[in-house]
UniProtKB/TrEMBL annotation, chains A, B:
Similarity comment: Belongs to the purine/pyrimidine phosphoribosyltransferase family. PurR subfamily.
Pfam families given in the database record: Pribosyltran, PuR_N
Coiled coil: none
Name of protein: Pur operon repressor
UniProt-listed Gene3D superfamilies: 3.40.50.2020, Winged helix-like DNA-binding domain superfamily/Winged helix DNA-binding domain
Bacterial purine repressor N-terminal domain residues: 4-73
Assigned keywords, A-Z: DNA-binding, Transcription, Transcription regulation
């Protein structure tokens, strides 16, 4: 049965949103809706325009027999700034300052709407690169990795500080924790990352950068490459072992006694 | 500027998918598109029909001044079974059997597409209940909790076995781990769960059920209620401390020496 344009538009929008970075042939849609390819092309023109005008992402069309359509999620600089500014305002509370200069973030990083926007922003940043896996360290980085991986439509892998039987055999490395100056261990399940991967590192909060350095070493052990590093928040008051990273927000002037801090937009927005 | 119906349909579909369980007034859409409410109503009829026919969920319309439209994600029994059956096939590999009768799942639970479907299935199961938070235990349960929470549009909270300074003050309880018979500790950040919450417990793999019992105790400590328990996989070869739960898949006849096991549909599909 031929499906009406209006119904096709709704269904194609749903399908594209659920399959980012996937090349879908026009034949797939033409068969699904018993419609001519020319009609599908017109539908895609409408969807492309609506996505672009609303800043939802790019609907790429690749011509030819091996061609098709691909949805690349995206966020405008304006919307990203607005979101990050709202996060800064939400973080402006002295109840968030914890002993040791840490910051309470679990409410924000347990909110799916916040995580989706973080995922969209970071995925948008690397949309020109060929990322094949997202990496983070357990536990706090996991929701961010998942959100980013969902928009890039690639797997995410979790590096652990403690060995778990449920991972099978692992590769482990030692690293120096920037914040405690102690030598610590981190490990990754052997089969979780294929060699030759192109890895995007994400994390919730960067203090000394030791954890990120550790993940860099792990990626080398797996004969893989680092595409980039982006963290949700960075502490601007500690020296970093690593320089090449972006942050969405920056925490500075933490005063543990008065429980005050200053929160501003991170290096992601510096340009 | 008045927006065309075709563009409205694409944009409203995007908006609804990104705001599940949120009551959106028709006035919001009417203003956004400079269109009459009657046109918006007609758009929603089209979207409702397309969502229903494709098994994407229910688009509820609530009449009256305080009314509006609400998207409730849903999955048909057929699609859920198909997905779970595919997972069973993917799990049918002797390389997954680990010492102690554990099963390697990190590839599946690190795949955003798999996680989204798991989230959709579990959210669909509890769509009639009033869930205000999803709870899990670190680390493996986190991606499932996030996926479910995203479809239910509620926060998720992470119970930890190890104390972390970044959580602030915590409430901790002791529980008996079913698999090791040892007394262990788990804790939850005090401010992460408001009293009076209605909590859905999810986890990746249930063996003895000790972890779930522990989470039940934690929920009581927070003067909150349990709405239900659903795990991705359950081991059918161990006695359980808890009876009231659902599983998407069931692992049985694990032979550690031969590294074989049997995987079948879980109790979610029993009815």
């Amino acid at each position: 049965m031929k499906i009406r344009r209006s119904d096709r538009l709704v269904d194609m929008t749903y399908y594209l949103l659920n399959h980012p970075y996937t090349l879908i042939s026009l034949t797939y849609f033409a068969k699904k809706y018993s419609s001519a390819k020319s009609s599908i092309s017109e539908d895609l023109t409408i969807i492309r325009r609506a996505f672009e005008e609303n800043g939802y992402g790019i609907v790429e069309t690749l011509p030819g027999a091996a061609g098709g359509v691909k949805y690349v999620p995206f966020i405008t600089d304006e919307e990203a700034r607005l979101f990050a500014t709202e996060i800064c305002e939400k973080m402006d509370s002295n109840e968030r300052v914890l002993p040791g200069g840490y910051v309470y973030l679990s409410d924000l990083l347990g909110n799916p709407q916040v995580l989706n926007q973080i995922g969209r922003i970071i995925a948008s940043q690397y949309r020109g690169e060929k990322v094949t896996a997202v990496m983070t360290v357990a536990t706090k980085g996991v929701p961010i990795a998942q959100a980013v991986a969902s928009y890039l439509n690639v797997p995410f892998v979790i590096v652990r500080r403690d060995s778990k039987i449920t991972e099978g055999s692992t590769v482990s490395i030692n690293y120096v924790s920037g914040s405690s100056d102690r030598v610590e261990k981190m490990e990754l399940s052997k089969r979780s990352l294929p060699s030759g991967s192109r890895v995007l590192i994400v994390d919730d909060f960067m203090k000394g950068g030791g954890t990120v350095s550790g993940m860099r070493s792990i990626i080398e052990e797996f004969d893989s490459e680092i595409v980039g590093v982006t963290v949700f928040a960075e502490a601007a008051y500690t020296s970093k072992e690593t320089e090449d990273y972006a942050s969405l927000i920056r925490v500075s002037e933490v005063n543990i006694r008065n429980r005050t801090m200053t929160v501003s937009l991170g290096s992601y927005f510096d340009i």
